Hints:
single chain; 14 strands; elongated
Amino acid sequence: MAGSNFVDYVKIFARSGHGGAGSCHFRREKFVAFGGPDGGDGGKGGSIILQGDRQYWTLIHLKYQRHQFAEDGEGGHGARSSGKDAEDIVIPVPLGTVARRLVEQEDGTTTIEYVGEVTEHGDRLTLLKGGRGGLGNWHFKSATNQAPRYAQPGEEGDEGAFILELKVLADVGLVGFPNAGKSTLLSVVSAAKPKIANYAFTTLEPNLGIVEVRDHKSFVMADIPGIIEGAHEGKGLGTRFLRHIERNSVLLFMVPADSDDIAKDYEILLGELTQYNPELLDKQRLLAVTKCDMLDDELIEEMRPTLPEGVPSVFISSVANMNITKLKDMLWEALQK
Length: 337
């Protein structure tokens, strides 16, 4: 996932296909004096469908394919021959994709309606159904109408604008200010190779890594780009990445040991999340005090009483591999709850 290739929000315009018209046809053969109605049915129009695909991590493929138009169904034929169904357009999307539809109201305003989300590999979500094919005239033959000269037209398709939004699915989300050591931790506990540098906002996109715990167990960890005070108002990288935190089961807050006030920094981070979405308070939270390789045991014990109450905490150093196994065990235990 190169920096310029991570796209987590895209707007598309889609149109499903019309159903094919039923045929109004009569059987005409040399030795059949009174050939009856034999018009076949029309084919179904193509639908527009999202399908979850674990091979995809971004919506960039839709950035350049914003128009998705399905074909119409084929019309019916004689001899009760049905028209061919049009193929559905199946759009692969990453797991965690949410679809919303833009609906124009009579007063000229536009509302956004939730359609659904794709969270499992192979999951399908129909955005627009293709029109049904019309019935051929043989369906309408009766004792009182032996030669119906009527067949149904195909049902019209549908069209609309949709917003597709990716919310990264991970078990553990890393929350912290820029330079809190999130990328370094992810690189140590998983095979992920996030960009690491000594300046703010090194991470410009979420990075995912699979963390192995004891007995071949594992969980997915997401390094979310750094939050700053006022992020919920659009400061810094703004709310763009706060949406990804909504999908994490456990939030690991990370504050460096050289912070002037660890408890205050934790409260600021928590405040940014809750002002963005109060439901984030319901998630399990842990606190990791990072960059502790320069601290001795005595200093760590002095710092413990200053940590926020009611939050399980651990002092770690990713570089020195200090308490990393303990942290993984704590996260695994939190996930089991």
